[in-house]
């Protein structure tokens, strides 16, 4: 049945890709373009996310997006910093994001984190488009600020066009090697089976209208039923980060993908030792740019509705895990909600063996991705947890009899200073990296060298 248009939630768009390929610049450009269109006030900066309402998308995309053709409220973009694995963005065993933009530098092409992101998109079945970024760096490029692709393409020299084409076809080829049928977006008829490649420049704004149009089209066509939710229902979200905040202690940066969360709500959050039951003391959002200098950094909200990014302050959050579920209890039995959170946490439980390496990861999602990669490489795991490397981990690794198991594999984690000392003393090797396949490779090399 057709839902009341007012009840559709904003689709969540993850922006991901290799370090420095231009994810943040792309979002900055979208925000900046809104300012120049006189729509600055319409864009809201959330915790870890940027909300762009439909009218603003439409005015930035010009003829490519007619607001009347859409009934989704806009787009909520989540930036994923290069060191922060996209795998954090999980929800209910799938992807938190409804759609994604995979940003690829046209000159650099595919890089390790591009491949990693593709793996996750494939595994979670997340529809995505590729933004082939930095087209303005093509030698001889003649920039047409904020113009649609076709327009800027037509005003380039044959030589520049040819160079760009070469780079674009290289990317299309790499996508095809990875098992995705892809083409320049205007040649794609069916976005469900084919990946559209949109040439853009986060610097000059060229191609941004096209990117917005493709994203709106994708969400509208394939996502609509998933956007029909009970916006007033108890909130459901995913923890992006656990952060200490002056005056609040440990807080959660959360992306809310369902329902509402209100100050005073009782919530259940996934923690290192199991579900944490606590009560929301404050809901916080960054202040608009103009207010930042004079006021406190955050604005307090009474209530927040999906989809949003919000900082949640509550007691007892120290052990909460990035990537873990957050659930509002409101109107339901606490035991049932605890059960839901436990069920989600157990989805990610890793198969462990009697003998193997110790794994530490920054988030639940990256732990899951590590476990998958290690299983494929046939590397057994003794223990796997979210968190920094602590003396306890070194102690566990040091019990191994084989040198190749006296190892801790860390994904994007810190090493506590007393753990550092223990590593030396206990002769335990630590490999720490922010690219999973690199970690596996480093470890395999270490094992090979030992066998020589
Ligand atoms: P991480 O968050 O570190 O993973 O990087 P990122 O993907 O967010 O890249 P970011 O937006 O920080 O851009 C990296 C560099 O590329 C910056 O120096 C940008 O100015 C530059 N850059 C990004 N987009 C473009 C573009 O379209 N054209 C040009 N010429 N430079 C760009
Ligand atoms: Mg960035």
Bound molecules: guanosine-5'-triphosphate, magnesium ion
| Count of distinct strands | 24
**What fraction of residues sit in β-strands?**
25-35%
Distance between the termini: 66 Å
**DSSP summary: helix tally:** 11
Main beta sheet strand tally, sense and closure: 8 strands, mixed
Rg, please?
Answer: 23 Å
Task: Describe this protein's structure.
- By secondary structure, the protein is an alpha/beta fold.
- The protein has 11 helices and 24 strands.
- The strands form 5 sheets. It has an 8-stranded mixed sheet, with helices on both faces. An 8-stranded antiparallel sheet has the order 15-14-20-11-12-19-16-17.
- A hairpin with a 2-residue loop joins strand 2 and strand 3.
- It binds guanosine-5'-triphosphate and magnesium ion (MG).
- The site of guanosine-5'-triphosphate (GTP) has 17 residues, from helix 1.
- It comes from Halolamina salifodinae.
């Amino acid at each position: 049945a057709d839902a009341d248009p007012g009840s559709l939630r904003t689709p969540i768009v993850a922006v991901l890709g290799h370090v420095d390929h231009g994810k943040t610049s792309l979002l900055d450009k979208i925000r900046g373009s809104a300012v120049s269109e006189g729509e600055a006030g319409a864009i809201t900066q959330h915790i870890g996310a940027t909300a762009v309402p439909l009218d603003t998308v439409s005015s930035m995309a010009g003829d490519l997006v007619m607001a009347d053709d859409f009934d989704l409220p806009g787009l909520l973009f989540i930036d994923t910093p290069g060191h922060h694995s996209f795998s954090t963005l999980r929800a209910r065993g799938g992807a938190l994001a409804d759609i994604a933009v995979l940003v690829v530098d046209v000159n650099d092409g595919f890089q390790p984190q591009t491949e990693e992101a593709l793996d996750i998109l494939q595994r979670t079945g997340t529809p995505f488009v590729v933004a082939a970024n930095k087209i303005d760096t093509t030698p001889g490029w003649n920039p047409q600020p904020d113009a649609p692709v076709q327009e800027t393409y037509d005003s380039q020299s044959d030589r520049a066009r040819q160079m760009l084409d070469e780079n674009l076809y290289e990317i299309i080829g790499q996508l095809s090697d990875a098992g995705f049928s892809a083409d320049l977006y205007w040649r794609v008829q069916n976005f469900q089976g084919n990946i559209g490649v949109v040439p853009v420049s986060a610097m000059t704004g060229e191609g941004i209208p096209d990117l917005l149009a493709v994203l709106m089209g994708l969400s509208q066509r394939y996502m609509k039923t998933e956007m029909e939710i009970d916006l007033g229902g108890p909130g459901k979200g995913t923890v992006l980060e656990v952060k200490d905040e002056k005056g609040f202690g440990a807080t959660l940066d959360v992306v809310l993908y369902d329902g509402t969360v209100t100050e005073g709500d009782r919530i259940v959050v996934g923690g290192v030792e199991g579900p944490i039951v606590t009560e929301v003391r404050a809901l916080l959002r960054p202040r608009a740019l103009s207010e930042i200098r004079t006021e406190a950094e955050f604005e307090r909200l009474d209530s927040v509705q999906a989809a949003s990014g919000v900082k949640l302050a509550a007691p007892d959050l120290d052990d909460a895990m990035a990537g873990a579920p957050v659930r509002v209890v409101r109107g339901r039995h606490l035991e049932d909600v605890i059960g839901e959170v436990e069920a989600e946490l157990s989805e990610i439980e890793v198969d462990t063996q009697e003998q193997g390496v110790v794994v530490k990861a920054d988030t639940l999602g990256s732990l899951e991705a590590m476990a998958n990669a290690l299983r494929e490489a046939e590397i057994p795991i003794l223990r796997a947890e979210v968190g920094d490397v602590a003396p306890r981990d070194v102690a566990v690794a040091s019990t191994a009899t084989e040198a190749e198991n006296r190892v801790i594999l860390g994904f994007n984690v810190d090493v506590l200073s007393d753990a550092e000392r223990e590593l030396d003393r206990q002769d335990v090797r630590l490999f720490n990296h922010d690219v999973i396949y690199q970690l596996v490779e480093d470890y395999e090399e270490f094992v090979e060298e030992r066998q020589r």
